[in-house]
Amino acid sequence: MPIENNSADHLQLIVPNLHRRYSGVTATNRMVAPKLAQLFRAAWLGPDAPEGIARIGIADLLKLWRRRSPLIWHARRNNEMIVGVLLQSLGWPLKLVFTSAAQRHHTWITRWLISRMDAIIATSDISASFLKREATVIPHGVDTDLYAPPADRAAAFAEAGLPGRHAIGCFGRVRAQKGSDVFVDAMCRLLPRYPDFTAVLVGAITPEQSVFANDLKKRIEAAGLGSRIVITGELPIEEVQRWYQRLTIYAFTSRNEGFGLTLIEAMAVGAALVASRAGAAELVVEDGVTGALTPPGDVDALVAALEPLMRDPASAAAIGERARARVLAKFSLDSEANAIAEVYRALV
């Protein structure tokens, strides 16, 4: 949906996505941008544009130079902040917003760029604590219509043609930071005891992670679980959503994370969640109520938290129902978009 030439001047918001590789940042941006486009005249700049928002190209962007009315530029990466600062300095009437999910001390260039922003959003109090300036805390939200429990979870699982009756999943790029090895090691110990379960790793294997991924595959084969620990590779987002609906249990195993959107995606579909204390896990999960929390990188703790759920899938289903209710109450996409809109309105 390219933006019309005669409507470019009436834009209120540009959502830049200046990153070629699809990532978690892109996924969060794609989810909330169409909601923001319902509140503001908005356009997406860059690849991977979602449905529901117009697209703007470089040629149209150049035509906005010296425009009088202010225009929001909402960056989520350093390169997007750099472009925004440069355009602003050259006369584009931009109001610069940056969303930070990082839970670490920033480099000097990031700190300098943050100091040039007109408004800062942090996805959690922890992320805000690293920013060294005032920020509005707005947690990520999830589209609870797209990420919803299936009408029949058993039928959804059967559709995959996997052995057993239940799936336990871990989604995200296959690498150490995501704790893919922690998940595989836990599954090698648990699956022989629980033949009704199959484990699924959904996510891309990048060339630089091929050695790591091959080592995981060797561990799986050595355990004799080649048919019961499935690594799908990268999938279209629609297929990822179907895999979520096949899950009885979701394991969030990241060693470190910005926010961790898969937390609320899994909870939204009604999967029971076991999560490492990384990213927004302690913000999102009520330990013992809507999921269980474990130390990052701890295989023994992950096994201990998963085993009761695998032993009693009915208990897992009840936890999943409470998790879904929590997302509806606290982490909906509408709540996120409305809070971001308030930040925009304060600027323009």
Automatic annotation (TrEMBL):
UniProt cross-references to CDD domains, sorted A to Z: GT4_PimA-like
A GO molecular-function annotation: glycosyltransferase activity
Claim: Metal-binding is one of the keywords in the record: no
Classification via InterPro entries: Glyco_trans_1
Origin superkingdom: Bacteria
Keywords: Glycosyltransferase, Transferase
Domain Glycosyl transferase family: residue ranges: 165-325
Keyword Transferase: yes
Annotated SUPFAM superfamilies: UDP-Glycosyltransferase/glycogen phosphorylase (SSF53756)
Family named by the database record: Belongs to the glycosyltransferase group 1 family. Glycosyltransferase 4 subfamily.
Annotated protein name in UniProt: Mannosyltransferase
